Batch of 2 targets.
Target 1
Amino acid sequence: MEILFLCVVIFLFLLAIFDLSVGVSNDAVNFLNSAIGSKAASFKRVLIVASVGVFIGAAMSNGMMDIARHGIFRPEYFSFYDLICIFMAVMVTDIILLDIFNTLGMPTSTTVSMVFELLGATFVVAIIKMAGGADLGLSDLLNTEKALSVILGIFLSVAIAFFFGTVVHFISRTIFSFNYRSKLTWKIGIFGGICATAIVYFLLIKGIKDLSFMTPELKGWINSHTSLIIGGCFLIFTLLMQLLHFLKVNVLKVIVLMGTFSLAMAFAGNDLVNFIGVPLSGLASFQDYAANGGGDAHGFLMNSLNGPANTPVYFLIGAGVIMVVALATSKKAKNVTKTEIGLGSQQGGDEMFGSSRIARRLVRWTLSVLAWVRRVTPPRVRRWFNRRFNVDETIMDQGAAFDLIRGSVNLVLAGALIALGTSMKLPLSTTFVTFMVAMGTSLADRSWGRESAVFRITGVISVIGGWFITAGAAFIGAGVIVALMHFGGHWVIFALAVLTIYLLIRSNRRFKNKQETESSDALFQTIITTEDKTRTWPMLMLYIKEQQQDFLAFAENSYRDITAAFIAENSGALNKAESALAQRKNVLKNARRKETLCLRHVQHETAIEKSPWFYLSNNLCMSLLYNLRRINEVCKEHVENNFRPLPPRYTEEYELLRTRISILFNDTLEVMQSNDMQPIALLRRHCDEIKDSISAAYHRIQDHLREGDTASMTVLYVYVNILQETQEMVSSIRKYLRAFAKLRDSEFRTRPSLLSAE
């Protein structure tokens, strides 16, 4: 059995390596988003600064893994086998949960996930032990205080960070305005001194309090001379920042990079236990069992875990190297960072989240409150604040989501709140604080305009909800897994190890496919970030053409698949088509929203001239989709009820019509690809001919019904419905061809008269 347990410990360390990379991807949002979002430096330089902080923090961590050893459970009451099952369940659940959240681009707390996994697994094992006759209660087996403190920290983090983020940044923006460069001459020294001092205080309190070189005497000296240290740092940094400003150094970029370093160092130094604490506890347990257990895994109690653990330095350095490599190479880190930056972006763009009822109600309520504030505020005061918050004067680097003032406040305030919470023994989460501060500052900057507020509030609610889901899923998931291991034995442990590897491989493949899909949308990002409006319209034309070509190709394939499935009575294909059409509706709506955003970046005269044809082409695409959905609906109902199939004489007639429809779609796609407007008039006449053929077929069916062909009446009504919707599709294609041509050439004419009807 010792070989099996050794394999489990080795597997725990393999999972720890992956957990380190996954955890860094998740927590990268804490220290990367402000520097990346404000373009304080290139992405590579930001990663270098963060990587140095991560490595130093990990390598100098004292490795005290008390939370994993005896923070949640009381090890003296648990056997070696109990704890191995708990540790395995925790690591498997942790890996899967974090990878799911990273793939979805949702930041979550590694501390919360680990604590609740330990709590859930321990709770189930405790229940099993109590049911087996152990004379112990839950209070003897569990340490619930830690879990309760984390729950308290969630509420405190969300409320306090959002409130102070909004208030502090409102004051900062009032002082500096969006046109901050003209107001830096003497203010930047004091602002830089405050920021740098707050960062140093954060490092002293949060970042290095548990590092290996911090002796009790040094900690005591820092605690007793905190005021002196803060005052001296403020004076020195104020003079230094003012000098750097006179030397033409961008002080705000220096502050942002300092904050990035300090948060990265604190993250690695304090949160390392979340990633390697459980495997190291498993290793310590195995070493104790191998030396003293006597082969009795179920009876050997783990009193040894009550003592402190000093992690060998090579573990810490190795963990630091893995974290740095993961930070530099992880695409998921960029994905998680993109979520927070997107929700706080100063400019309009592709909103990552949809709308929700609670968000709509919150926006409506906020608008009512703002209307009341405007009524009671004197006009002169309103005008003064509007000048300070004039977004048109925003100074940002190309491609930035917000300016350096906000980036500085994000990092400094997050660090200060975390340090303050630590000094007051409040368990504030790094993830919660940094995210909610960023949301508060974006709200203060009026980034949540009426066009984006609903989407961004939905996003914030989704992220906050994800944090609570993390706790619940971690508790339940670890509990279920540990129960399976406890009752299923080593075969279940082996099966879960295989399942974990499979899920990770599948998750990474899905994420890779998702990245390939998103990379194809690079043209959209180029359009909304370009400052040269003369280049915007040609790029938008190309973007619209690509999106609509893709849709028309989908429509042609769907039409053929649906009608073929109807003729062949294939209900499975019709169900598949129904799902594909529902998904395509969301794709169309998303594309329309993106194209509308792009249209705002086009020159005003061009936008006014082209917008009617732009909206018409979009509406016609949506109309085609509705035609396809209605055809599929009646066909699916008919086939699932096992009604009579379409008689052969109608099938032969309809096959010819289906072929003509496919040719029409393909000819339309060829015109779009070639940008040659000459064939459009011919294609529109071809549409008229197809519509006439459909009308003739429709009248023939009516004649057959009048002749008393009642046996096939049900299927003929379905066929009539297909013909009617097909005729509407052809009409939509005919109108679309004109709209497509008008978008490219306003002088395009299909008939001599300017007022000719469609």
Target 2
Amino acid sequence: MNVIFVLIAFSSFVALIFLAAYIWSVKTGQYDDNYTPSVRVLFDNEVRKNDQEKTKDEIN
């Protein structure tokens, strides 16, 4: 029975350590995405000039 209490206490302690590490990482900006905005422009979709014009394959 004592082993269960020790395991619960130890697992709670480890969970608190991971929670503190997560809170620290969010506060220090570890999850800020600085890379994607700089390359987002490179993957911009091109707009068709005329949606009205159809090729022969699209008509048939």
